[in-house]
Amino acid sequence: MGLVVQKYGGSSVADAEGIKRVAKRIVEAKKNGHQVVAVVSAMGDTTDELIDLAEQVSPIPAGRELDMLLTAGERISMALLAMAIKNLGHSAQSFTGSQAGVITDSVHNKARIIDVTPGRIRDSLNEGNIAIVAGFQGVSQDTKDITTLGRGGSDTTAVALAAALDAEVCEIYTDVDGVFTADPRVVKKARKIDWISFEDMLELASSGSKVLLHRCVEYARRYNIPIHVRSSFSGLQGTWVSSEPIEQGEKQVEQAIISGVAHDTSEAKITVVGVPDKPGEAAAIFRTIADAEINIDMVVQNVSAASTGLTDISFTLPKTEGRKAMDALEKNKGGIGFDSLRYDDQIGKISLVGAGMKTNPGVTAAFFEALSGASVNIELISTSEIRISVVTRADDVSEAVRAVHTAFGLDSDSDEAVVYGGTGR
Length: 425
Known about the structure:
Helix content is 33%, strand content 25%.
């Protein structure tokens, strides 16, 4: 048996009983002959509680000190889990991100992994131990400061360790039974997907699906690490994410035409009004946004009015970056030459994802017919070869997702999807 990396989210280790349940699952894998590395998140809502505490002390906490604070959550989880495993008669050692060799850049609160040098992990495994690693954290290559990887960082930690250790698989344990055709909290008849390609999973993740984060899937695709998404609350098979279809029994899982419907209500829309319709104006707008280190998603430019020679440009971005983007544009208003800005954070994005849509005529028409049938108005449209995304009013998102899910025959005929921990993550 080979090496397995398992990651357990906050809902899986939310309390003492959860930690003991996870310990039993890890020990079971060890008894089956695997070397096991377990990556853990902070318990339950610990990270959010620590952020709230920091903001009570300081309205704008320093990035370095905030990272020092937040990494305490995962250290608590890893130590308790190691204790629980030892109580079951097996040896375990816990490691912080820096001890595990997770090397990052020096950007606090959203660092990126540069390298993983898991020498201490290998030594511990070779000595017969189960290795427990604190997710979500690393150490800066330049400053040697502790860093955090941002939301979903534990998933990325797990996949990075799996790649560095040449693991057979990276198992991501969460509070749902796998990747579903839609969010089970919104679509009760969402169906579990047996297998999905890296490409489709990347599109779902970037479109709002929260089971796996985009960076995690991107890392797994780069190093061709199969991911098995499953629940720590049940013994059911989950969803395999890999480059090639897998075989289950005598039946090979095939690529579906449509993989699923994702939604996202965490974005806002900025419209730059009265932009001169001439070369260089759009470049000036988005250079301003880029210099403020803000990522954007969808972009739409209206046809300019012949009488004025002016146009409007709209784009979406994370709500958390909205104020910073507005301030940056206002500061450069003279250089760009627009009339005014409009900000709207009551929007939602719905995305239909599937590699099969590029060879199946009528998918786009069926998508928009489903939205029309649900009386959902569309504000922005964006497409790729395997994705169609639209922006609507936030209040219309749930109804839109259910309508599209049903229109493409994705509803399950069997039991409803279960969210064991209540958060879907």
